[in-house]
């Protein structure tokens, strides 16, 4: 502790100590009841309470970086007519004020009753106080789990004073309260971050569970869920639902000729054409398995479904990016009944695909439902 004044004139009185104690107890209660996003407001209120007690000129909070290389003035209260220094006290290198930092770490406080009487060893610290025209200052350390994280302090610009033990004790109360506020705020921010990371990971997992790893399309599991939803929706509204099953022709031969990787590239190319052809609102493309795909088109009549199947045949036949490929397509267009299940729809549309294969491939067959 650096006690450097010969003016024995403490500013504390019994009355002001009592009213300050009352204020602190009110602030502590409001901290306990404060909403998570009220931390800033709470710190500002605490500084204002500290400042108005015995007419201080400036009260502030500084936080150290974890590596103790810099400190930043994070909160400040200034009395009327007193200039603010918060903006020019951001990210200050601690090596510029070694005496201040060493004293704070060793004693948990720095007490300056008269700046002009500070010894020369205080170096840059004394110069900084003089630059800010500070006559007296008092700073008390803030600790989180035993680690010094910063300090709360106050300045007197218009007069100097001999700080009493009671002044230090009051400042310590405020420092502890602000440290608790910061601790709570940090814990809540970390909790929020972990929660939002968990939420994102869960969403990604749910997405992966419904995604085909090769093509990125909806997989078989996802298809069942989507089909169930669309069946119920169109049944409720008594609207048409069209379902297309698309099977690549002679895919085994393509695999044999171009290798499994060539086959994979062809699957991705067909998936891309499907997505491009069926991108209107509500249309969904899924990989059913192997070389089979399913397209779900809510509110699409049989006539439009046939038109779109013809467009698809042309788009695939004219694409030779990997190897010439054609497909056979089964089409179902119907208004679902209450007992229509995804399984019955997929079985029937699969039958339509077989009929298209029998017809010579590179064509579509539409079957009536039921
Ligand atoms: N490259 C690759 N091949 C696959 C994949 N999944 C299934 N296959 C192959 O796809 C082929 C499907 O062939 P089949 O269903 O027997 O019939 P096809 O040769 O397409 O003949 P048709 O359907 O009658 O025109 C099989 O040889 C499977 O091994 C995959 O993810 N990648």
TrEMBL record:
SMART domains: GAF, GGDEF. GO terms for biological process: cell adhesion involved in single-species biofilm formation; negative regulation of bacterial-type flagellum-dependent cell motility. InterPro entries: Diguanylate_Cyclase (IPR050469), GAF (IPR003018), GAF-like_dom_sf (IPR029016), GGDEF_dom (IPR000160), Nucleotide_cyclase (IPR029787), Rev_trsase/Diguanyl_cyclase (IPR043128). Keywords: Coiled coil. PROSITE patterns: GGDEF. Residues 184-211 form a coiled coil. It catalyses: 2 GTP = 3',3'-c-di-GMP + 2 diphosphate. CDD domains: GGDEF. One of its GO terms (cellular component) is plasma membrane. Gene3D superfamilies: 3.30.450.40, 3.30.70.270. One of its GO terms (molecular function) is diguanylate cyclase activity. Its cofactor is Mg(2+). It comes from the Bacteria. Its EC number is 2.7.7.65. Residues 239-369 form the GGDEF domain. NCBIfam families: GGDEF. This is diguanylate cyclase. It comes from Pseudidiomarina piscicola. The gene is cph2_1.
